[in-house]
Amino acid sequence: NILLSSPSSTSENGDGHGRDNGLELRRLLGISTVLMEVWRHPSKLVNHVASSVYQRLLDTLALYIKCKGITDSNKVVWAPALADTLKQPLQHRSRYHAITLLVPRVGAQSIVASQPSIFSHLIEVMRMREVSSSCCSCISALLRNLVSEQGANPNEKRRDAHGVALSKERCEMFRSYWVPSMVSALCPDKDSAASLSSPTLANNVAEYVLPEVVQVDRFCVPAIFAAVRERAALCSSSQVLWTLVHVSLQARLHGLEGKDISSGSDGDALHVAAPLSFEELRLACTSGDIRLRLTALTVLTATLQKSAPMGVMELEVLQETLQYSL
């Protein structure tokens, strides 16, 4: 019945009609609060229905906004709905799933404006592996909405893996929102008191976030290389190398700028935006850290074209270093 009333179907008492609208909206938003509780229920038989019901609720709210002609919907409807999701405990996936569903409604720019530290918050929470996948989906949805073609230069549009048109200008504009936080997680300060728990965070970010963001912002790899190299003095050299190898791996797997191994000297490799160098790759392939060594060996064969032959430099590194992994 709420949705059948149009903006023009006003009662004789305008104030009464406004009060009725307010009551209807409070009831709808009250359903959101209840669903947040249901989503946290320990039984999967109960909590698994919350996601689909919440999506239906958002559809209903969107239709209510249209029917009632609400002009300040972000303030009146979506802001309270977002506030409900942010009351969810950090350790519950429902918090991040709900935000992901709200992104197309609220708009990533509005969310970032009201929650300026949301990217750093989401990345920090990825210390908890049980919510890492949900956090990553949330980060991806926010970033994809930010860099979509709104206001883009037609000559700069490209399509991501989901067919969303992207703008290089917008990618560059919003990169400062997430690159520093992600790189700080991948390369934590070596003197930080939190560094003991950082390997879990770095591993989760490398496994979940890094592959996703390079597909959303397909121009970002040089900027990530630069940010990593700029942190070299703050973190351990082995962690910097580990991060460079993982970034290079994703660039090669997706055929992005920065995928090629630099053949220059050590001096050339120090350029902040330089890709992984021949010497860095060779060093990684002979590392005592077996995870780093095996990832570096994967870099040697990683390519967007699965049938492409191995490059001359990659083959040289493989021949020189394979004995250390046998």
Question: Can you offer a commentary on this structure?
Answer:
The chain has 326 residues and is an all-alpha fold. 63% of the residues lie in helices and 2% in strands. β1 (157-159) and β2 (165-167) form a beta hairpin. α14 (278-285) packs parallel to α16 (312-321).
Q: Which short descriptors sum up this protein?
A:
326 residues; mainly alpha; two-stranded antiparallel sheet; 16 helices; disordered N terminus
State the secondary-structure class.
mainly alpha
Strand content: under 5%
**Number of E-type strands:** 2
Distance between the termini: 71 Å
Helix content: 55-70%
Strand order of the largest sheet: 1-2
Sheet of most strands: 2 strands, antiparallel
Give the overall pLDDT as a whole number.
Answer: 84
Count of DSSP-assigned helices: 16
Shape: elongated
Radius of gyration: 24 Å
Low-confidence stretches: 1-14, 151-157
SSE pattern, N- to C-terminal: HHHHHHHHEEHHHHHHHH
